[in-house]
Every structure is written in structure tokens, then in C-alpha cells.
Design brief:
- The chain has 471 residues and is mainly α.
- It is built from 14 helices and 3 strands.
- The protein has helices at residues 3-16, 30-47, 59-76, 81-101, 105-131, 199-222, 227-248, 251-269, 271-289, 295-318, 340-372, 386-406, 416-435, 445-470; strands spanning 134-138, 149-154, 172-176.
- Strands 2-1-3 form a 3-stranded antiparallel beta sheet.
- Helix 1 (3-16) packs antiparallel against helix 2, helix 1 packs parallel to helix 5 and helix 6 runs parallel beside helix 8.
Amino acid sequence: MLAIPGIVLLVIFIYARPQEFFERLRVAPLLYLFFALALIGALLDVRTGKLRLGATPQLPWVAAFFAWSALTVIVQAPNSAFSHISELAICVALYLLIAHGVQTFRSLHVVAGVVLAMVLLVCGVGVDQGFAPKGCVVIDDSNSISAGIADGRPCEIVHDCYLGDSEPGAEYACEHIGLFGTTSIGGGRIRYRGVLQDPNELALAGAVGLPLAFAFGQVRRTNGGRRIAWRVLPLLTLLLVLVCVALTASRGGQLVLVVVLATYFLKRFGALGAVFSGALAAPLLLLAGLGGRSGAEASSSTLERLDAWSEALSIWRSHPVLGAGLGQFGEYHYLTAHNSYLLALAELGLPGMMLLSSILYLSAKIPLAVLREPAFAKGGVGAAGASIAHPWAMALLAAFAGLAVGIFFLSFTYHYVLWIYIGLSGALYSAVRKHLPTFKVKFQLSDFALVAIGNVTIITGIYFYTRWVLT
């Protein structure tokens, strides 16, 4: 399929950020070139009959979310509308290309394999960084997340950086210096570059990428693959992700990893899985805590997050329908919302929060429906495809369970990684439909009620919790 090379290059570009350490790549608008390549490939695939026109269940909700988001910023902040709408358009385009350009399990294996490879890359770079020697880093004040650029001098403590050939007037940090010029932040918390330069986001990306390794291991074993190789892949990925999450010192990332693993235990052992996963959580969190932040720093971070949540609710009360406008939270508060649901509520109003939640709900419902599909049961007409469909459905269900928790503590509403997974869920639907045309996933009134109850619970729960803690 001709759309796949462009989609693969987009995934590599978003995760790896090669233009940030290969200077010659910076002159070309790679993001738009890869989008054009994927779009042209998809159109040619439609023309040649390799792709069929059809909507995934998320499509009308994604279209409504994009239109509503655009409306909010056009009304509330027209001067900044173009840039914010363009950023959201990239997210939507990622979903469209992956969900509708990947319509076979073979193509799904390729795209998901590249996502997994990128997860291994960013986590591998992070782990190497965590064990690398420390060096002096000139802090860049223009970016609150970036720790700046290493100047080549070694250090043990930050005081060392102000001795010798220090730059007059510069502010320094003593951080681990990793591959590709990456640096840790906050006294040793590992991270990557680009959209994963925040340690918390690196931890989330690693944790939700882990199920893809489990899926590859299961699919290859059940379809005659080399047993040792495909058993080792999930184990090595688990080890790498576990160490990566530990070195990020991300409490949210630790929780996401536990949720992802717990999803597998619950599916495999039922109620007993809850006990199993609880027992597993303790050593995982203990190991992750070895690279954790000090109590004072963690407490300060928690209070900042709660303050941002409280501000998000305040913004929503002032703008209950349209919100403050797409991308406008930073105009009201010095920090981001640190909660994707509240970010949507504050910027897009209650309709925007409902639309985002509906997209996430449907993206999780698709793999759950695949697992429950009667035709995939033993003796059913589609039973032969269950050995391929079920591992990917389980992987994406676990990924979205982790994402649902992880984005509660991060502003991931318009994050490319989230929309790549929304696209992968749509791709699973397209692949299953090609194998089993009768398969359908609908958003019913009961689903809408569940989404509404979930959103009301989030709003009221956070309202009372922030009032209790902050007053």
C-alpha cells in the first residue's frame, strides 16, 4: 500500500525528531513533506482499489471536535486562530491517515512495528542518558522545559559549572549528557527531545508502547514465528520501559505502567487479576521510586498541578459553553492545565470535553468490541482471524487504559502521540472490517450517558478535591 511509507516516515519524524540532531534536515519542511507523501499514497491506493472508502467510528466525533475547537478560538481569540487550528489539524490528519490508510493486518503490523521501534529508541536513549556522566548545561530561559545545551565540561555538582571557563552571566545546571545531545532535567530526570522532552511524557509514551511488544510476541508465536525471539522481545521491552519510567521519576508514568500491566492481568485472571496486579504494583513503584524526586519537590509539583486544575475550573465557569478558546489556557495561567480533560473543558467548554471524551471512549471500545466479537469465538466464521485480531485488540485496550489514566495528569489533549494511538484504534477497526465485513462499533445512547457521567465525575471530584487541599 502506497500510503504506508509516508505514514511510517511521519511516525519516525514525530518520535525521533531527526532534524534536531542532523542539521541538514532542518532546512526542509519534513512534517509537511511526509504528510503530502502519505496523502498522495492514500489517494493512489483508493484509485487502485487497495483502500476502500469508509468511516471509522471515531470519524464523525473527530470532525465535530475539530470544528468545535476551531469555532472556539475564532470567536474567543481570532488573532491566534490560524496557528492553533493548524496544530490541531496535524493531530486530526495523523488520525485520518493511520485510521483510514491502514486497512489490513499486514499494514497494521508495519505501522505498529515502527511505533514500537520508536518507543524502544526514545526509551533506549533515555536509559543511556540516565547512566551517562554529568556535564555542565547552559540553561535556556526561553523554554521552561528545555535544560539548554551542554558546553562540554564535566561536573559533579552545579557549583563546578561556575568555575573555570564558565560563560559570564550564564545560568548552569549539572545534568546527565546523553546521545544526540540530549540532557536530563531537574537534577537527573531523563527525557528525550521534541514532543517527548518532558520526562512525564517520555514515561507515558514508553508505558503505553509496551503492549505493542506483547502483541508482536503473541501474534508471532501463534502464527509459527521463532518462539525464542518473540518471547524475548516483550521481556526486553518490559525491562527497558521499566528502567526508563524509573529514571524519569514520573509518578504518573509509574501509575500508567501499572495500569497497562493490570489490564493484562484482569483479562487473563479476572477478579484474581486485580489482586495479582496490586501485588505487582508495589515492587514496580518501589523500583521506580529509586529515581524519584525529593519529598519537597514532589509536594511542590503536586500543589502546582492542583493550582492549575483549580484555574481550569475557574476558566470554565467564566466561559461554560465555548471555553477560553483553543490554545488559550496559557493566557490565563502560567502553567499548562496538567490534565487533558480539564484542558479541553477550560479551552473548549463542556461540549469540547464531551467530544474529546467520546473520541477516547470509542477508541477504547473498538478493541474491546473485537475481543467480544462472537464471530472470533471458537467455531465462528471469523475464528481464523482471532489469533491476529485479539493480540492487537488487547494491546490497544491496555494502551488506552494507560492513556486514560496518564492524560489525567498531563496536558495531552493535542499531543501527537495520543492521536497516533487514536489512529491505531481506527486502523484495527478497518483491518477487522476487511476480514469480517459484518463487524461494527456504534456509539449508542448508553455510551453517551457513560461519557457524560465520567465527565461530571471528573469535574465534581476535582472541584471538591482542590477546594479541600487548597483552602
